[in-house]
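Researcher: I'm preparing a figure for a lab meeting and need a structural model of a single chain. I don't have an experimental structure, so a prediction will have to do for now. The sequence is pasted below. Please return the structure as tokens so I can convert it later.
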Amino acid sequence: MTTTKKKGVEKKSGNNIEDIVEISSLVRDEESKGDQYTDSCIEKDDSEKKKQEPSLSKKELSKKLEKTEREKQEISDRLLRTMAEFDNYKKRVVREKEDFIKYGTEKFACELLAVVDNFERALEQAKSAEEIQPVVEGIEMILKQFVDVLEKFHVTSFDSVGEPFDPKKHEAMAQQEHNEHEENTVISEFQKGYYLRDRLLRPARVIVSKNPPKNDGEGSESGEEKENKD
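Model: Understood. Here is the structure written out token by token.
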């Protein structure tokens, strides 16, 4: 009796599973039909919109074409004007550069003319001067004026005596033995060096020290004593 009940339960549960599977299949079919219906509706709406859009006539297309041609011509004209302006700009820059190269020292030359004028006056006075001292003082003043003009245009001298020899800004003319300075020290200056701003304009021509040769003092004294004894 118990066995029959179990079989009945198993049979009943098997029917339930088959029903669930069938219901799921029906739901999927309905969803698929719904998607197809939605897609067809969308396509129908699109086709109706296209039909409702008015087609352009030949006259309207001609007007649009003329408008496009005018815009194209305007852009072309602007491009040509820009190219012409740029070409004029390049010519102007070249001309200004050439003028700068030719006349870039105009202001410097004007400043030097004042120095030349003072030199000429000093020379005229020196010819008739009875004493030399006023002439020397006048030349010293003119030299100071000339140095001031150079400094105004950023041309400055630099000191070299007592400084270590630097091949970047010194030009060695000779070497001299010297006991008071270390080796390779500038002890004299033939010609001053100058900078133009931070660039070396002219190196200084200098004399550089070197150590004197080492002598054996004891050996020389013993030699002298030996000669005296003889």
